Every structure is written in structure tokens, then in C-alpha cells.
Automatic annotation (TrEMBL):
<keyword id="KW-1133">Transmembrane helix</keyword>
<dbReference type="Pfam" id="PF04389">
    <property type="entry name" value="Peptidase_M28"/>
</dbReference>
<feature type="domain" description="Peptidase M28">
    <location>
        <begin position="424"/>
        <end position="584"/>
    </location>
</feature>
<feature type="transmembrane region" description="Helical">
    <location>
        <begin position="113"/>
        <end position="134"/>
    </location>
</feature>
<protein>
    <submittedName>
        <fullName>Inactive N-acetylated-alpha-linked acidic dipeptidase-like protein 2</fullName>
    </submittedName>
</protein>
<dbReference type="InterPro" id="IPR046450">
    <property type="entry name" value="PA_dom_sf"/>
</dbReference>
<dbReference type="InterPro" id="IPR039373">
    <property type="entry name" value="Peptidase_M28B"/>
</dbReference>
<dbReference type="InterPro" id="IPR007484">
    <property type="entry name" value="Peptidase_M28"/>
</dbReference>
<dbReference type="InterPro" id="IPR036757">
    <property type="entry name" value="TFR-like_dimer_dom_sf"/>
</dbReference>
<keyword id="KW-0472">Membrane</keyword>
<keyword id="KW-0812">Transmembrane</keyword>
<comment type="similarity">
    <text>Belongs to the peptidase M28 family. M28B subfamily.</text>
</comment>
Amino acid sequence: LTGTKTALQKMHSDHRMTTHTEYLDNSDLQSTALELEWDMETELEDLGFDHFQPDNSFHQHFGNSENTDFSLRSFEASVSPKGRFQRLQDDPDYFLHCSRPTPKKNNLSFCQICKIVWSAIFLFIIGLLIGYFARTDYHTYLPVNETTSGPPVVPHDTHSDRDILQGIKEEEIKKTFRTFSQLYSSKNDTDLAKELMVLWSSLGLTEVQMLNYSVLLDLPGSSPNTITETKSGQCFYPSGLRCGREAKDQPNQDLLYSYAAYSAKGSLEAEVIDVKYGTVDDLKKVQSTANVTNKIALMKLGFLPLIYKLSLLEEAGFGGVLLYVDPCDLPKTSDAESKSFLVAVNSGGDPTTPGYSSIDGIYRQNQLNLTSLLVQPISVTLVRSLFSLPNNESRHECLHLEVSSTVKIEMKVLTVPVYKSISNIVGYLKGSTFPDRYVIVGSHHKTLNTYSGQDWASSTAIITAFLQALLLKVKKGWRPDRTIVFCSWGGTAFGNIGSYEWAEGFKRVLQRNAVAYVGLHNPVRGNSVVHPIASPSLQQLAIETLNFRCIKALKCQGSNVSSVQMQGDVDYFINHLGIPSVQFVYEDDMASEKPSFLSEAIFPVDTLETENLDPSFVLHKTIAKLTGEVVVKIANEPVLPFNALDVGLEVQTNLQGDSLANNHMLEMAKCLRDSAQLFQSDEMRPANNPKERDPIRVRMLNDVLQHLEKNFLVKEAPLGFYRNILYRLDEKTAHFSILLEAQERWKLEQSNETHQAASSKVLNSIHSAQVYFKAGFDVFETALDPKN
């Protein structure tokens, strides 16, 4: 009784301290239920029911995956070994300051006892009335633009996640995939977006809208780009086909869309010089033996971001670039060597409105070309033809192309910049408890006629299947605690334009309210193994989800979660907003052995090839369930399933063995890890115990977790490198990418200024995170002090 009285006094004090009063009423009404649920959970654990969780009217708990019967695989220890819910050190004084001495016993008369009994009955009746009217007015806390009442909200049960995920069916994914694949040839971007909006609305998503933006796109002209060998006069299309001919399996549409968007336009006749992968070492070797001014570079994709390598070529003095993918790096599709591809040299968004959304009446800059280089992607077949190279006849191993001779060519780039309308589809499933906190799920749809490929149809089918399963639960009265935002982006192939324009327009809101971004960019690229990519704070959630969901038949064993740069529309949310992100992708088993950034090349992928990778669509269903479980957990758990300690561990890992990491930087990294460990141990107790889930405490705790990774956003980064320095370039390199780039840049400039600038950025980020934790501790101590 005294404990309850103390808690009520504390709640009353906190009520005066905060403006978020709307959440206090709901949590007060649930306090008794939470205590009973925690006792029930303890009894179930004593009986061995590890997968049973307490039934909660607001919050959802998920089963502990460590006791499943599935065949699990082991992960590398890139996350904290003790886990999110493990208390790292005991705090015996934690409850002392909240307790009060037991009142002395007094002898009570019969009249006094009667007064107490009648008072208790009266208070009980008043409590019932308050509970009834509080439940009736529950939806008044939703935003004022709520126009539909929707189904009644019912208490959330422990099987909600299971019911939702069981509703994801292969048949529905296959149906949606084939429907949109057939619509591809007959619909333009806007029409296809309308079809998707109508489909989502028909499933029951009441708040869905289509947003249109007029943006600058770099489109092919009436004729394909060409490459002509000067000596023989032979003219070739980028695919290697001779000019004037069209193959039955390569229509004119594919020939037109084999180009580099936003490249310089015109023609250039010059000698071709092989620069291999275009790294700093490759360029230094070439420059020591040849004059590269106004020459054409022959460069392979991979290892570094394309726009970064192009900037190095510009600085060196090259005039043009022929891009290709080495035969050993090509995707496993039919006749890959004879296919050219599409790339974009756009760092993101509409080039004419950098930093702000392309709305009507906005000022537009003159940015027709984003590079001074003429850039043209070509096939391996054309490389062999130009340099008279033999075919790879080895059946046992792949042989990398080695170009030793030089040829003189004329390349013509005939693309045309045009303003076009692109469309985004955005739908909202409002949260019942925290409607102002957004969990964003993003896929993309086809933009114009960028190839006859259907790779986008996989992500569209998966997000639609998850939405359909979710809305079936909503029709029964269920609602997530936090708002889930479903997005399908347009303009992805041209530099993630749709997601950039939307996020730039809502930047201030997203900075404050966005909790996480879960991506579905090209989710089925192979059929060998699941590759999870996650922010450091979400790595443990990705591991737990894989451990719980994956069995040997689903080919999840051997997967290793990592924080590496991702391709696709997640870019803005990581790079400019610092939002924790995660995505799951099926890849080939040798994908990790290949160079990074190969996915910058967009190859034409036929529908049949996608279905050959996954004929039963079981891989699509697996990605849908993994994605769905992560989304539901983030949207429903009372304490966000983010791991602060893993951020500290990631920083320490990235500094180990780095020559630019001085003792001061290493010491600060250690202090950051200690602060994160203390925060995880002392402040995250509400994640373990419902009795400690004071609404104010939980809200403050979630705010700290939500904004933690923003401390690692640097103001500027090299072209193509993430501003969020927590993400590495690839899985093989465990160092901060900006420190690695500084070391490479030093080879060209021989200046320590680049080293010092990069080191200062890393040091400032670590210091900012350390101060952030300290401020969080101070807020908790002040707000939760009984004296206040």
C-alpha cells in the first residue's frame, strides 16, 4: 500500500513537470494489470513456458528465441554479449530512495473499520466510472486530422505478432508480383502508383495518399549512346551489339536505357586507358606511366562508391569513362556478359533543389550535369571486342579481365535532361499510444521505363503482403502502439529522388518523430543466404529475429549482421536524419566475397529470372516475415528494442588497429562504452520489469534511444560516403570510412590536413555521444528524484 501511495505521489509530481499528460492517464489505468502480468510471466517461466509472455493492453512482448527448437546458427560477436535485457550491474540503492517506512499498526474500532470499507467501495465505483470514460475518450488523443473512427481498440494480446505473421502467404505475394509485372508494360509511373494506392486502400488502409513531385530526370534521347572504334570505324551500342542491328532478346528499349544518368553530354574522341577499379593506388600507377589529360578511363565498378571514383578521375584530368562489371563480379543471370546497365551519378534527390523539396514555385538551380565527365556503362562483351580479349573458357574458376593494350575510340552521350513528375505512395496506420512516433517501412516502384526488369516488383509484393496481414488484425480491433508509415518511392533508379523529396519536405517532423526505417530495396538478389544489414543499435534485434524465425530450410545459417552502407531509399534517413535502420536481403553465397557497391549497377532483370530464383516465393515470404516481425516489435514494445551498448562497441571496434586513432581517441571511445554500459544497466530496467514502467521514465528512455545515432552525423563527408560514420564501406573493413579515405587521400596530396580533419570529425562524434549520455543521466536523476 505504501509503495502504491509513493508511486501515485511520484506520478502526480511528474504530471506537473511534463506536457505529455495524454500518456499518463493510459498508463495509470494499466498499472495494476502490469503487476499481475509480471507475476504471471514469472510463474510461467518457473513452469518452463519460455515462449509465453504477459498479456498487455498496450504493449507487446515477444518470445525468447534462445529456447526455440529451430536449428540456429551462430553470429559473430559484433553486438553486446549480455543482450539488451541483461542488467550489467546491480544497483541496490535504486528502490531505497523510492521506499517509505512501514506505518505503525493502530487498534481500530468497529466504526472505523466500517468507514474504511465503505470508503474503499466508493473509491472502487469511482475508479470503474473513470476507467469507462477514459476508455470511451481514448481516440481523442489521435491527431486532429483523424477523420475515420475505425474499429474499436481492444487490449493487445501476446499472440498478435504470431497472428500477423501467419497471415503472410506465398500465394498473395506471387499474385501481387505478377499483377504489377503485367501492368509494367502498359502503365507509366503515375498510373502504376495510382494502382498501388487503390490496392492499399482496398485492403483497409484508410489514410493513404499519392504525392507528386516535378523533378529533373536525365533520360535517353531518340537514339542509343554509341562507342566507335576509330581505327576500324566499327560502331557499337553499349551492349556490344553493332550499330544498326537489334537482337530479338535485346529490344531497343534496353539499348536506350544503358546509360549513366546526369553524365555530361556530347562526344569525345580519345585513347582509352585501363584504370582497373579506379582506386587511389590504381590511379597513381597509371599516372606514373601515362598522360591522362582528356583521356577515356576504362574502369570496373566496385570497392568504392561510383561518384567518389568519378571525382578522383575528374581531379586527375580524365575526360570520359567507360564503366563495366568484371566477369567475376557479374550477377548470376542469363547472358550477363552481353548486358549493359544503368547507373546514376546523382548523390540523392532532385539535382535542381538540393536540400529542399521540389514543390511548386520553388527556386531551381541549373544542375543539368553532375559531373564534367562523359560516362557510359558498357557490357563485358564490348570490352572483349574493343581490346580483342579472349573469352573466359575456364570452367573451374573465374578469370578477371586484364587489359594491357590501348585503343582510340569516340564515345557519344545523347541523353536529355527533362522535367518529369514522379509519385510517392504514403500510407499511415496510426498508433494508439504514441501516434507521434513513426516506424517507416519503405519499398519502391517502377519509375518510367528503366529497363524491362521487374526487380522492384519483389519489394512491392512483399510490403503489400505484410500490409494485408497487418490490416486483417486491425479489422479485429488491434492497433500498434506507434504509427507505422508505409511508403512506396518513385525515382529510385535516378538517385533515390522520391524518398529524398518526401523526407526533405518533412525533415523537421522526421527529425523529432521518426523512430526507425525498415527497408525493402531489391530484397531477393539471390537464393543462398539471408544478409541482414542494421544500424549498431538494431543489430541485436536483427540477430534475435533471425534466430527465432530462421531454420535450415530457409537458408539463414551463416548470416552475419553488419553496419555497412546500403543501396536504395534508406540513404536519406541514415545520412541526413540519423535514424536507426535495418533491412534483410537474400543474396548468393559468394556475394560477400565480391567487391562492395556492385549494386549501383541496375541490370535488366526479366520476370522469369526472378521467379527462377524463388519459384515457390518462399524466400519472398521469409523476407516479409523477418521484416514484419522487426516492424511490429519496434512499433509495439514499450521500450524501444535499441541497444545503446552496441553503439559503444561499434565505435571501439572501428578504432582498433587504425593508425589515425590516437590514445586520446581510444580513451574517449572507452569512456563512451562505459557510459553506454551504465545506461544499459541502470536506466533500461523498464525493459525488464513492468513495475518500473513509469510513463515519464519510459518516454524519456525512448527519446534517448531514438536520437542516439544522430550524434554520429558529420557535417560533410567525401562524395558517396555516409555522413553517418557508424556505417562502414564493406564487411571486410572494420574502420571508420572517413578515416580510411583520409589515408588514401594522403597518398595523392601528401598533406596532414586531411588526416586532422577526419580525426576531428570522429573525435567530435564520440565526444557528442558521451555528452549525450551524461545529459540523459542528469535528466533521469532530476526528473525521477522524489524530492522533485
